[in-house]
Amino acid sequence: MNIKNNENPLVSVIVPICNVEPYIHRCLDSIIGQTLKNIEIICVEDHSDDRSAEILKEYADRDNRIKAIFHETNLSTSQARKDGVAVSCGKYIMFVDGDDELCPDACQIASETIEKYGTDMVQFDTEVVNCAGGSEERIQMNQRFLFPCLEEIRAENLIFSCWKEKKVGFSLWNKIFNGEICRQAFADVEDGFYPKAQDLYAFFLIAYYSRSYMGIENRLYRYMFGIGVTGSDYISIPKFDVMMTEKQIWECLVRFIDKKQEQEKYKEILDGIYQHFLADCVSRWQNNLQTENISEGFDHLVDTWGLEDVISKLAERNWHKSVELAEKMVDVDYFKTTRNKGNEIKTIGIYYRSIKNGGAQRVVAVLANEWAKMRDAKGDPVYKVVLVTDEETEDGEGIPEYELDYAVVREYIPSSETAVREHYKERYHAWSTIIEKHKIDLMVTGMWVAPCTMWDMLSIKGQPSKPGFIIHAHSFTSVPFGFVSDKFAELMYDYQICDGVVVLSEVDEKYVKCFNPHVTYISNPITFSTGNMKEVKKEENNILWLGRIAKEKQPLDVVYAMEHIVKEFPDIRLHMVGDGDEKLTEMLKNLICQLGLQDNVILEGFTSEVEKYYEKAQLMMYTSEYEGFPMVFCEALSHGTPIVTYDMPWLTFVRDGRGIVTSRQKRPDLLAQKVTELLRNSEECRRLAEEGKQHIKELEAVDIGQTWKQFFDTLYEEKERDEDSVDNVIFRFLTSYAYKGKQGRIKNMEGQITRLKEQKTQEVKAAQRKVKNSETFKVGKTILYVPRKMKKFLKRLSK
């Protein structure tokens, strides 16, 4: 059949063609067979590698309505459409992709509709065809997304209707356009190779010049989902690079708006498009690259978008789901150190959220002072020290900070509590500024289990100067396994990404070495001098419990223990020093009254003058579930006060044993038994007191600054990690399977919740059907029929 070419076609159909040999027959047949014959078919063959060009020539020979344009090089769909539109003559223009199809009456219904409403464009519905075995849920999601807004829109232009009001989608192929507007818009499309986001680019320009829109529910287009990149689970690096050309489209839009001198008017829209493209590329890197391409892909991602925006977008999308991301980052070379043992560390940064009102806070302040005071053989400072804390909040106002050496430089960053998710960018920028300003070589963080730590580490290690990053753990490394969050699993990868880890016991050192060979045990600095301790006679039957009133401190247990102790020592007094959880404090008070121990247990509350309690106490009871390096142990033992504690066998104090007696966890009766035995044996009590004081003197004699320096000096030495050792294997896989098990339980719970919701929905629908089928409902509906009609009539009349 040879159909004569019409010089005045009603509709021009633009078809970009590239490597669609398996689909081009279906596509062209669907257009040639349109019920509306007064059309021109402009096919732009974009230098295919297959037989697409030959097939197109065959079709052009048979149908004179086909105008065939052949590119000598591959110029992308954007240029193909532009070249096609430029030679079009139709009153209206439609677009069809070379692997999709038009329904038989698409051109006729679309052109009749746009004629009828006199709008600049009409959007119709799309049939999404599952060509790659995708999930039905994904197909239905696309089907809903492509369904048009069934209303007429008239406005200054349609940009805000699309990108702000979300009424109009930006796909080109599910619409018919005013031909003159379309040609005007495509004339502004920049020549060039733009293989991604061509629809958004062209539609933005069309929407800028368009003033009206209409949507209809007729299904006129068949979208073959899964044939192209859209449906792929995995993509190669070349295809990933194609994805990132979206950035070029955004730059084209910015230049277009700049030319129109309407930057402020469209700033929010352009920012949103930028974030949309960035999120798309970040998601593709995270979800669609094979593991072996993750590192190279990240380099390409940062080259295109910059580290600040990449980290910020990852933080926005993964703040509380960071385990899988951390696992990927282990293999990303971008964050691996470029330093070696020859690189001198001149400036050290140390970070904690504050340096007030807490043991970890005090340790950070003391370490900063120690490093700042260190001098070399010439008497010059060994390090410049920059202490970084969060910006002051109202909660912290009025509370004094721990004293700092004059040489310690202060810097502040947005709070770790507020600079989260989409707000993390503010914190990244602060880190970048501080590192560049002070030329920081190494950053030490004490926030080892905070959600911000991984993001801070990536932000810092990713800077051009590639600073080192050390995690300083402030508690037992197994504690995060008890958290509601998945931090325990993320830490497994954080330890591998960072340059080194400092822990508080040999037990912790053994665990962390499974993930990083640069790990060492360094005790916390003693923050007082044993030489200033007064020798005070202990008061008989006077014992002490000191700590924060918190769940992990298990303060109720010490009261239960006292119930047993008073049976042998009726006049004994326990001073409980500290405050905290108000609800738990109230429970303490009630328990004391319930057990009749008002004369034996005295709640002292919080005081900074704790020396008098240490000096007078015969011994101290301790009931914590876990600790890292309890400074109260140091304080008690330095005052010659032995400690009876629940067993925490990882603690260096407990493993050393001097001055300490342990009892089984969760057994206040056994704890009481140890206390009574010790109170009966004054000689044993004195022996423990002397041993404990000697232990603290030895700790005090350690030069903490030099100990840290030795670690710094060996940080970049080559060290091998035996991944196949028994310890490494068991620790790594215990952590890994604990995480998998937890995720499995969460998915099961989510599934149960979904099933319950569905069941509830079905029950509600069944109840509604029962009501509608009842005689009472039918009678009521009949009675109200006339009043309803009258109400509608009066409403129309009033208008």
Automatic annotation (TrEMBL):
InterPro entries per the UniProt record, alphabetical: Glyco_trans_1, Glyco_trans_2-like, Nucleotide-diphossugar_trans
Key word Secreted present: no
Domain called Glycosyl transferase family: residue spans: 536-694
Assigned keywords, A-Z: Coiled coil
Keyword Transmembrane annotated: no
Coiled coil regions, renumbered to chain: 739-766
Occurrences of domain Glycosyltransferase 2-like (ranges): 12-142
UniProt-listed CDD domains: Glyco_tranf_GTA_type
Protein name: Glycosyltransferase
